[in-house]
Amino acid sequence: MGAIKTVGVIGGGAWGTALALTAARAGREVRLWARDPGTVSDIRSKRQNPRYLPKITFDEELAATGSLDEVADADALLLVTPAQTTRAMLAALKKTGKVRGPVVLCAKGIEQSSGKLLSKVLAEELPGVEPGVLSGPSFADDVARGLPTAVTVAANSAKTALSLCEALQSPCFRPYASIDILGTQIGGALKNVLAIACGAVVGRKLGASAQAALTARGFAELSRLGTAMGAQGETLTGLSGLGDLVLTCSSSQSRNFSFGLRLGEGFMASELISAGGKLAEGAYSARVAVKLARKHDVEVPICETVAKMIDEDLTIDDALNTLMARPLKSETAGL
Ligand SMILES: NC(=O)C1=CN([C@@H]2O[C@H](COP(=O)(O)OP(=O)(O)OC[C@H]3O[C@@H](n4cnc5c(N)ncnc54)[C@H](O)[C@@H]3O)[C@@H](O)[C@H]2O)C=CC1
Ligand SMILES: O=C(CO)COP(=O)(O)O
Predict the structure, then answer these.
(1) Is the ipTM reported for this complex over the cut 0.95?
(2) Is the distance from the beta carbon of residue 13 to the nearest atom of ligand 1 less than 6 Å?
(3) First to last CA, the chain
(4) Which end of the chain offers a freer environment for a tag, N or C, measured as fewer CB atoms within 10 Å?
(5) Mutational pocket test of ligand 2: of 17, 254, 262, 279, the residue with most ligand atoms within 8 Å of the beta carbon
């Protein structure tokens, strides 16, 4: 593929808008598709997305539109709608008949109905289109404000990964190229589930030691599943794995961590989910992550506990008892 001059961003939420700004700062011509007409008009007329990025006014002018046709033929597309909408969005893109560049998956999750990674969903819906994955420790608000951020950008070929990195690089945004598409997706999907557990521990005031233990044991789960599925070790310890896990497990800026905080404070998951509120992808990925782990014969007790808190309203105290009462395990091989 040649140099990327135009970037189409699909999704006018916090992350889609932040990535559109990133591509604009990198000198690309950017077209941003948003489902909500109010978002399109706010971005066009006020240079703001008040619903998803409150109190931020952009220096950059973004060409926002409600028409997928106007975006689909860009040199590269960033797909930035929630993970569970990926298949429908790809089908809608296919209908335009215009997709020609790589499609970079920016959502963090696993398809609930099939247990498939989003790259597999892409291969099924738009066969022949080059896949990409963008993931790593990056809060949309930080990125939109131009704070320094580094992420992993993976593609099947080094050439495509590098050209995507060049298309997005700016003084405040540093992408690292990778050819590990699979591994780059696993960290993003699992860290959201693990961040819910860390938030719950903090919400229940169980202390910083418990939070650190959970983050480290969470990383063991992410690594075991990633390794079993074929991820590269450097990916799991890199930005999209350990990097994003550390960020999300330690900050109430994370929506997944905040969802967990509420669970720790005594709210039931069913109450929180029925009240709507901000997107917490981990609530949708927990059960399917457990199923994926079973398929690969891997133990993921923290993810399993989060899945029970979400699907069965297991309380934080019962969750803690379940984890602490597990049979003793060795931390190292050979014991
Ligand atoms: N916000 C962040 O800091 C980051 C988010 N992500 C990931 O990006 C993905 C999107 O997250 P955000 O933009 O933050 O969420 P958001 O809640 O801010 O925005 C979601 C956007 O998707 C649109 N949307 C919802 N359902 C839709 C559907 N059925 N069809 C089409 N559009 C639909 C909404 O209108 C909204 O524009 C998630 O998977 C998230 O994990 C990744 C890195 C950072
Ligand atoms: O993925 C993110 C940071 O890397 C954003 O995390 P939350 O979706 O939990 O807010």
Answers:
(1) yes
(2) yes
(3) 50
(4) C
(5) 254
